[in-house]
Hints:
Order of helices and strands: HHHHEEHEEEEEHE
Largest sheet: 8 strands, mixed
Low-confidence stretches: 4-31, 213-227
Number of domains: 1
Shape: globular
Distance between the termini: 53 Å
Amino acid sequence: xxxxxxxxxxxxxxxxxxxxxxxxxxxxxxxxxxxxxxxxxxxxxxxxxxxxxxxxxxxxxxxxxxxxxxxxxxxxxxxxxxxxxxxxxxxxxxxxxxxxxxxxxxxxxxxxxxxxxxxxxxxxxxxxxxxxxxxxxxxxxxxxxxxxxxxxxxxxxxxxxxxxxxxxxxxxxxxxxxxxxxxxxxxxxxxxxxxxxxxxxxxxxxxxxxxxxxxxxxxxxxxxxxxxxxxxxxxxxxxxxxxxxxxxxxxxxxxxxxxxxxxxxxxxxxxxxxxxx
Length: 277
């Protein structure tokens, strides 16, 4: 083979490598090209994952935390043991802990709040059908970024979530409202053909009271019973501790450099090649 043909062959090989890489995923064991069937499955996976996270938001709006955990979170070992729900100050680890803290304790809190509220608001009866009365838990999903593993077994997603929350203060009996902006990131596992949440990370950037014409700049998100709308002492006294405390994310500050946390998902073939939320 003469020099000219060798150069031409080398150029063709390089071009094929570039094209095949652009059609596949990153990763040492990644297939370099998707079939039409694989691309169709990938598109379906993206939509199903988006639906799972949207259902999380709707369950949250209704305060149906236990129902959410049973419906769209992992249900099989070993994923149930390594499931994780993380926020700024720390994490709940394992579905048993998540069910207790996010599910059962939420119901207990609602019962205590209704009992206290009925004492300062006689117009609100302490009856089961009034559980969660006055609560607004509204979160939106925007700017989604989803990556499905090349092997189709796991996936990662990230969203931004502006939200608004409201309740009735159990001390004053008056409505109290806050808004917040958060980042959501999640790892998903496909169980019996259905995508389920495995790890969920919620990073709160900032928030405060809904602005009122008679007031100045909004204050920060309530953190104690001393602030209007915050949890009463009766609930703080029995609030379970997180399984792990860590400074996972720092809220916005004028003196803070923007954080690349959580990292947007990156293409990968199998979960061992990527990071975990």
